[in-house]
Amino acid sequence: MPTARRVAASPERESLEGCHSSVVFSDDRQWAEHLGAFVRGGLENGEQVQYFADTTAPERVLRALTDAGIDAAGAVTRGQLSVSVAAQTYLAGSGFDPDAMIGLWFDAAEAACASGYRGLRAIGEMSWAARDITGADRLLEYELRLHHEVFARLPLTTWCFYDRRLMSDEYVSVLASAHATHRGEPHAEPTLRVAPLVDRPGLLMSGSAGYDTRDAVAAAAAVISGSAAQQMDLDLAALRHLDAASLAVLADAAAGRPGGMPLRVRQAPSPMWRLLQLFPELDSVVEVVDR
């Protein structure tokens, strides 16, 4: 987990909340509009811009930019714009590895700044996650980790492209909801929403956690147990239901926090209160606030 390296963020960058956005679309026109707006803004702001394609041919990306009145060829020639494919980025190696991808962001942002750019902008096509790819099940964990592990430390802005033609609406809603901001078409609220807290390390869980949402709970647990943040909050104020299995997963994650640092739980639901009463040893790993 890359925690030692740090690149100073430009004061002109977007707010932290706007640095990691989901973009949902369902046709080529919408794709091209979002693409053009993002790339034009980055080029005009003196940032380096990268596009990580999956199903879109790199030449089609460049052609769409040219059609939008952007000198894509010139930007490529001077090194300010590049288009690569998922096999070289997200899926480099044997599959998707969140730790490796987070390391890539640090390397890419450092390289952009070393080349004289004010920061890095990137678009990633996320449609590969709907295929049977090793590690794709960790995408939600990755999206949740980015806010504080990456964007709080780097002059980086990314838009994650979700094409409804290639991914199920349910999957899109879960992943899009994990971003600090959203652009493009509206998406349905997932059964269980897991999102980063924008003002401090931690997660917000809202909706209902049960058997059908076990993958989302597992992603939240991975973030809780893996975070090196000294203080980690879990806000459950909007959680309507939490089944015993999900509760056990979250409790195990709290117990696995590095250095024995407790998990601060806000607005704990009644099932968690009962668990804490039954297992008082959890008092050392779970701190309930807003009692």
Q: What structural keywords apply?
A:
alpha/beta, 291 residues, Transcription Regulator spoIIAA, 6-stranded mixed β-sheet, 6-stranded parallel β-sheet, single chain, 36% helix, 2 domains, Rossmann fold
Largest sheet: 6 strands, parallel
| Rg | 20 Å
Distance between the termini: 34 Å
Number of domains: 2
Percentage of residues assigned to helices: 25-40%
CATH class of the largest domain: Alpha Beta
Low-confidence stretches: 1-6, 9-14
What is the second-level CATH architecture of the largest domain? Answer: 3-Layer(aba) Sandwich
Residue fraction in strands: 15-25%
Task: Work out the number of β strands.
Answer: 12
* Average pLDDT level: 90
Number of helical runs? 9
Strand line-up in the sheet with most strands: 3-2-4-5-1-6
CATH homologous superfamily caption of the largest domain = P-loop containing nucleotide triphosphate hydrolases
Choose one word for the global shape. Answer: elongated
Structural class: alpha/beta
Report a brief summary of the structure:
The chain has 291 residues and is of the alpha/beta class.
Care to describe what's here?
- This protein is of the alpha/beta class and 291 residues long.
- Helices cover 36% and strands 22% of the residues.
- The chain contains 9 helices and 12 strands.
- The chain has helices at residues 28-44, 58-67, 72-77, 98-114, 139-151, 169-176, 214-226, 244-255, 270-278, and strands at residues 20-25, 48-53, 81-85, 120-125, 156-163, 181-184, 192-196, 202-209, 232-235, 239-242, 263-266, 286-289.
- Strands 3-2-4-5-1-6 form a 6-stranded parallel β-sheet, sandwiched between helices.
- Residues 1-6 and 9-14 have low confidence and may be disordered.
